[in-house]
Amino acid sequence: MAETHTPRAVSEVVDLVSALIRFDTSNTGELETTKGERECAQWVAQQLQEAGYETEYVESGAPGRGNVFARLRGADSSRGALMMHGHLDVVPAEAADWSVHPFSGAVRDGYVWGRGAIDMKDMVGMMLAVARQFKREGTVPPRDIVWAFVADEENGGRWGCQWLVEHRPDLFEGVTEAVGEVGGFSLTVPRPDGSERRLYLVETAEKGLGWMRLRAKARAGHGSFLHEDNAVTILAQAVARLGTHTFPLVVSDSVAEFLAAVAEESGLQFDPAAPDIEGQLAKLGTISRIIGATLRDTANPTMLRAGYKANVIPQTAEAVVDCRVVPGRQAEFEREVDALIGPDVEREWITKLDSYETTFDGHLVDAMNDAILAHDPAGRTVPYMLSGGTDAKAFAKLGIRCFGFAPLRLPPELDFTALFHGVDERVPVESLEFGTRVLEHFLLHS
C-alpha cells in the first residue's frame, strides 16, 4: 500500500485524541450544566498557537461556549477557502456503564477509548495533527484552509454554529466548501468472487432535524370522577398514533447512488419499491440502521410529562418527539403529523433544522477519492445520506457546500454505528493513523 509519510502528524494524533477525550465536554442541552467547552477550546487554541497560528477564541452567545478559528493561507487565496470543522462537545456518559472511564482517553487493545472517540474528537485530533504539521513545516496548501473548532453541536448548535453563522459571518469569509464529521469511514462488503471491497462513505446529505413538543389541554378534576376529556388520554393516543406510524418510502439521489454502488460491488440487489426493502438492507449488516433510516421520515416520541398527583386529572400533558425528515419532505411531513395527532393536540418546534443535500461530484469529491486510493487502493468512495444531523446545516445557510469526510479504515467486524453515543465508544489507533495520512493527502490536493 502506498504511503505518504507524515511522521509528525501521525506520531502525535493518538496523544491529541486521548488528550481531547480527557476534557469532559458533556453537553446536557442546558446552559447551566453543560461544561468543559471553554477549557477544551482554549487548549485547542494553545496547540495551534504552539505551531505558529494566530487564533481567534469566540464564545457563542453564552459564557463557556468556546469556539476556536484559525486560517492557513494557501497558494491561491483568490480561490474559495475550504473549512475543516469539528465540534468539541460530546453527549454525556455514565461511568458505571463503561469498561474504562469515559473521560480517561485510555489507549489499550489497539483503541483509544472514551466519550467522543468517534463523535468527534477523532476528527478533531486528526485536524489538529495535520494543522500543526502544515504550519511547523511551512506547508502551503492549494487554497486557504479555515480550521474551525466549535461548541454545542450535540444540542443542534444553538449556542455554537447557529449563533456563529448569525452573529459572526465574518469568520467564514471566503469559505465556499466545508468538510466535517460522519463520513469517510469504511464499510467492507463481500464481492461475488469471494474478495472484499472497502467502500468509504462520504456524507452528501442529511435529513432535517426537528424536536417537536406536543401539548394536550383539558379540564382538570378529581381522579375518581368520570372524565371524557382527559389531557393525558388525548396526548397518549396522539403519541401512540404518531410513534407507530410508517411514513412513505422516499429514495433520494444520495441514497439511490449509495445503493447502486453497493449493488455493483457486492452483487446484492436492492429494490427500493419492494415492500421488504428493510429486509434487503439488513444484508449490509450494522450500517443498515443508518441507511434504513434515510428511506423514510421518522417521528420517535422521546419524552412524556403530565400530572403532579395520583388522584388529580391534570390540565396539561406534554410530549417531545424527535423528528428526522427526508430532504424535500418537510411540508408533507407536517401535514401527516397534523392528521395523526388530531385537532385537540397542539404542536410546536423546540428545534427545527433544515435538511441538506448536495451532489457527489466536483474537484473536492475527486480529491477525497484520490486520497483514499493513495492509501487504500482497494477502496472506493460512495455518497450516502446521514439519518442524523451535523453543523453543516448551519454552514449551508451561508451558501457553503458541505460534506462529511472524517476518513477511517475500520476493521470489518467493528460495529461502528453502535459506538455513536454508545457505551465503550472507541476508535482504532490504526484508523486514526490512516485517517491522518488521508487527510493530509486530501488537503494537499483540495
TrEMBL record:
Peptidase M20 dimerisation domain: from which residue to which, for each copy?
204-332
Q: Which cofactor does it need?
A: Zn(2+)
Q: Which Gene3D superfamilies match?
A: 1.10.150.900, 3.30.70.360, Zn peptidases
Question: Which keywords does this chain's UniProt record carry?
Answer: Hydrolase, Metal-binding, Zinc
Mind telling me which InterPro entries this protein's record contains?
Answer: ArgE/DapE_CS, Bact_exopeptidase_dim_dom, Peptidase_M20, Peptidase_M20_dimer, Peptidase_M20A
Which GO terms label this protein's molecular function in UniProt? hydrolase activity; metal ion binding
Q: Which NCBIfam families match?
A: PRK07906.1 (NF005913)
Family, according to the entry, reads as follows: Belongs to the peptidase M20A family.
Put simply, this protein is called: M20/M25/M40 family metallo-hydrolase
Its taxonomic path starts at: Bacteria, Bacillati, Actinomycetota, Actinomycetes, Mycobacteriales
